[in-house]
Design goal:
The chain is of the alpha/beta class and about 900 residues long. It has 43 helices and 26 strands. Among the domains are: about 260-470, 3-Layer(aba) Sandwich (Vanillyl-alcohol Oxidase, Chain A, domain 3), CATH 3.40.462.40; about 625-800, no CATH class; about 805-914, Rossmann fold (3-Layer(aba) Sandwich). It is globular.
Length: about 900
């Protein structure tokens, strides 16, 4: 029986993927390794996990568990069966008023923190990838981060686990009889663990070795401190699972003890003449109570020059300069003032090159941290084409931090990495470094091998540090666990693996590996493709924002596929390229919403949607392009045809009827603004079920009049389109025709820019705001003068202060359209609603609805997948009086998803001002 058939007998065949396209999409994680699985499976419960383990033992095909795939050392790839946890396993339950939280391995860490924020709490681990990584990886790699040190890492903040062993035994450590149940079901493991504990306890030198290794950050090998910290077989085992990288068992659920999310923060960028000088300042800054001390060398700072929040003087720093991003946190103003006072007392002893400026402004703090958290991808985007980004982390005892970092920098230069970058969590002696490495020729691989050998000698032999502080051991450091720990400790780790996974079915060779060159195998090549592809380091930060992530591909996977196509073309593999095309158009092109939300999470702003638009354009023939251009040129006819079509019976129950005629607003003279009703407003009218009682254009005009402001709707607005319908489909010429006409007309309507132009649909406003590149030279000059505003902005800044609010709508649910997010208007939209409502509900899981213009009609499965989490959050315990957005198509999509009628935010303004 084939693998597909045998796995399909265990799971639904729809959740067993073996097409070349699917296997290639999962062949990469965020590391510089690549392995193609023989199958990708998506189990939904522990019964299926147990069945997979039994299958794996029987077939001798290993399993590798993967959550977000943001691991940097190759932990989440395999040439066996990849178990994808990202689409299910999303348990999230707040316990004890936020003191604890129960979560599944498929929940994004940032989502957990967003829910906990309502209780003033957060997870202890705070990796820079918290907005993308998932709980499965946070536990399996014993994540820590920038502020948590070792005190609040995953190991120390976990309260219980529910897990499945390779044998199929399932244990919930929170159960009252968990210890007895484990001992009865797995007597050999229980007995073996206690024997290992006695063996360790009987060797004082080994005990001290283990204690010393865990006084600093250390994720090399298994967590041997579990044998010293706990005294029962089960408690030892489940703490060994933490940081085990999926090699000992499957973590089905975790309960974390949370920590306070201190509301007050003071953040500053401290400048020093050199990295050693900055390192020498760490101890006094720690003593002053700093919660975060992030070291950045000059090369790091250079990569974020011009980034919002980074002071301009950073551009002029000398080549040896360094900085520390310092932050103090407190629960009260008095406590924060004390922290700032402690810093001022320590400051005279610090060799800073200029007086620092601390800020309590949340926006500026966010910008500083955004620059720091995005360093990896920012640096990766600057790397030479064809090179991989290698991102490693080590730890030095704080006593040797300055010397260790100095030697590390020298080592980078010695081995031909003069552009190597050093930064990291200096408060904990945890230093990251990034190098750009080509793996395209043997000499480059030899270069990397020699560097790694010298790195190991320096960190382990000279400073007795840790080769991995928080990224997990992974393929890159698995050959060196013995070197760092010594034979006695390594033998115990080997025995742990043998006891728990005797058949070696779980992620073999990733954490312990006797092959001294395994870190040089399966290296990822990066052929040159397109700009978006070439800049991407496959970090996965984009994935949580993608509306198609639970349907077909994510932005990262689309880029992975593009690279795989290029590899097969370069190799002349025609058959392989053809095999890869099975399902490619649907997954790559048809189900991408091209909303650009991926760029909002990408530290370097890669918009995979723009790539997809270009690929769509390449697929259009001359006839299709000519037809699109003709449609753009005669758009008034298209508009009339669409309205007429809406009068016919529709297969879509939620398809609106045709729009009513626009209200007559009189002449332009005396008007406060030009009102440009989008083609969506002019075509799509009230819902067929009567869900929209008043046409949008009439509502906007009437609400403005209540504020004493008359709007002017041009009589020749029909046939004017922003061009987005053509742009999203890849019809570039048609987009240019429509956009240029829109600018010409708005220029005339606004009296050469004298009046602002208000656009009532956010995607259309965004499209006009970003169309400059396709305009003629004359229209670019006009564009630069025009004041085209999203109605969200105009309503908040201009209308709201004048509008009489007579009563409040009790409770309003908000779905921010993607364009509102990209325009930075979410805060203003929420503020407008708060002025008119008793409560505004903004779902944590809100994101792109996937309607994407007409995509919700042509591919309704995209909208269903994109809105599932947001709809669930809204429909469970969140009754609201109105549900609103600022895009008619988004309103249709959200109505379809939730069963609640969504209307424009203007309906809230209308109800509150009547």
């Amino acid at each position: 029986m084939s693998i597909t058939a045998s796995l399909g007998a265990l799971l639904s065949p729809k959740r067993v993927l073996t097409r070349p396209l699917d296997l290639a999409a999962y062949a990469s994680d965020a590391s510089f390794y690549t392995l193609t699985p023989v199958a990708v499976v998506r189990p939904t419960d522990t019964a299926e996990i147990k069945a997979l383990c039994a299958w794996s033992r029987r077939e001798s095909v290993p399993l590798t568990f993967r959550a977000a795939g943001t691991s940097l050392s190759g932990q989440a790839i395999t040439n066996g069966v990849l178990v994808d946890l990202s689409r299910h396993w999303r348990t999230l339950e707040i316990l004890n008023g936020g003191a604890r939280v129960r979560v599944g391995p498929g929940v994004v860490g940032g989502i957990v923190n967003a829910h906990l924020a309502r209780y003033g709490a957060k997870l202890g681990p705070d990796p820079a990838s918290i907005g993308a990584c998932m709980i499965g990886g946070i536990v399996a790699n014993n994540s820590s981060g920038m502020c948590c040190g070792i005190e609040h890492n995953a190991y120390r903040t976990l309260e219980s686990l529910r897990f499945v062993l390779p044998s199929g035994t399932e244990i919930d450590t929170a159960a009252a009889d968990a210890e007895e149940s484990f001992a009865a079901k797995e007597p050999a493991i229980a007995r073996g663990l206690m024997e290992l504990r006695s063996r360790i306890q009987g060797g004082p030198r080994l005990v001290e070795r283990i204690r010393a290794k865990y006084r600093m950050k250390n994720t090399m090998g298994y967590a041997l401190n579990a044998f010293l910290d706990f005294d029962t077989p089960l408690s030892i085992l489940w703490h060994l699972l933490v940081g085990s990288e999926g090699t000992l068992g499957f973590i089905a659920e975790a309960v974390f003890r949370t920590i306070p999310d201190l509301p007050l923060k003071s953040t500053g960028l401290l400048l020093f003449p050199s990295v050693p000088a900055a390192c020498e300042a760490i101890e006094p800054l720690r003593a002053s109570g700093a919660k975060a001390l992030e070291l950045m060398d000059r090369a790091s700072l250079r990569s974020v020059e011009g980034h919002p929040g980074i002071p301009g003087f950073v551009n002029d720093l000398p080549s040896q300069a360094a900085a520390i991003l310092a932050e103090y946190q407190a629960a009260t103003d008095a406590e924060l003032a004390d922290s700032e006072s402690a810093f001022r007392n320590a400051a005279p002893r610090l060799p800073m090159t200029m007086a620092p400026e601390f800020t309590r402004d949340a926006m500026l703090q966010g910008q500083l941290w955004s620059a720091r958290k995005g360093l990896t991808a920012t640096i990766g985007a600057m790397r030479p084409l064809g090179t991989s980004l290698i991102f490693e982390d080590v730890a030095f005892p704080l006593l040797h931090l300055a010397a260790g970092v100095t030697d590390l920098q020298a080592l980078l230069v010695t081995h031909g990495y003069p552009d190597g970058i050093v930064f990291g969590h200096a408060k904990d002696g945890n230093i990251h470094f990034i190098i750009n490495q080509s793996f395209n020729e043997p000499t480059s691989i030899t270069q990397y091998e020699r560097f790694t050998d010298d790195l190991v000698a320096m960190v382990v032999d000279r400073y007795d540090g840790a080769l991995k502080a928080e990224h997990g051991t992974g393929r890159n450091m698995a050959p060196f666990v013995l070197r760092e720990w010594g034979a006695e400790a390594y033998a115990i780790m080997r025995e742990v693996k043998r006891l728990v996974d005797p058949d070696a079915i779980l992620n073999p060779g990733v954490l312990l590996n006797d092959d001294p060159r395994v870190h040089l195998a399966n290296l990822k090549s990066l052929p040159r493709v397109e700009d978006e592809v070439d800049r991407c380091i496959e970090c996965g930060f984009c994935e949580s924002k993608c509306p198609s992530r639970d349907l077909t591909l994510t932005p990262r996977q689309r880029i992975v596929i593009r690279r795989e196509q290029a590899r097969r073309i370069a190799a002349g593999d025609t058959a392989g390229l053809k095999a890869l095309s099975d399902g490619l158009d649907y997954a790559m092109l048809h189900t991408c919403a091209t909303d650009g939300m991926c760029a909002t999470a990408c530290p370097v702003g890669i918009d995979t949607g723009a790539l997809v638009k270009r690929l769509r354009a390449e697929g259009h023939g001359g006839v299709a392009r000519a037809a699109a251009a003709a449609s753009a040129a005669a758009f008034s006819g298209v508009e009339a045809f669409a309205r007429a079509a809406l009068m016919l019976p529709s297969p879509f129950r939620d398809l609106p009827g045709p729009a009513c005629a626009l209200p007559d607003t009189g002449p332009r003279e005396g008007a406060a603004a030009v009102y440009f009703p989008s083609c969506v407003t002019r075509v799509l009218g009230a819902s067929r079920d009567g869900g929209e009682p008043t046409p949008l254009a009439r509502t906007i005009v009437e609400v403005a009049a209540r504020a004493g402001m008359r709007l002017f709707i041009p009589r020749d607005v029909a046939g004017t389109c922003c061009g987005m319908p053509f742009s999203s489909k890849g019809f570039e010429e048609a987009h240019a025709i429509a956009a240029n006409r829109a600018i010409e007309r708005t220029w005339r309507w606004s009296d050469a820019g004298r009046l602002p132009v208000v656009v009532d649909t956010s995607p259309c406003a965004f499209s006009l705001a970003t169309c400059r590149d396709v305009l003629t030279e004359t229209n670019r000059e006009r564009f630069d003068t025009l004041r085209i505003q999203d109605a969200v902005l105009w309503a908040h800044d201009t209308l709201l202060p004048l509008l009489p609010i007579r009563r409040l709508v009790p409770r309003v649910a908000l779905h921010p359209a993607c364009s509102v997010v990209k325009l930075g208007l979410v805060t203003k939209l929420a503020a407008t609603l708060r002025a008119c409502a008793g409560e505004v509900v903004a779902p944590i899981e809100s994101g792109c609805c996937g309607f994407a213009g007409d995509r919700g009609f042509t591919h309704p499965e995209l909208t269903e997948a994109a809105t599932r989490a947001e709809a669930l959050e809204l429909t469970v315990g969140m009754p609201c009086d109105l549900h609103v957005s600022s895009s008619r198509t988004c309103e249709i999509g959200m109505t379809r998803a939730t069963g609640r009628t969504y209307v424009s935010f203007w309906d809230v303004l209308d109800a509150a001002s009547r």
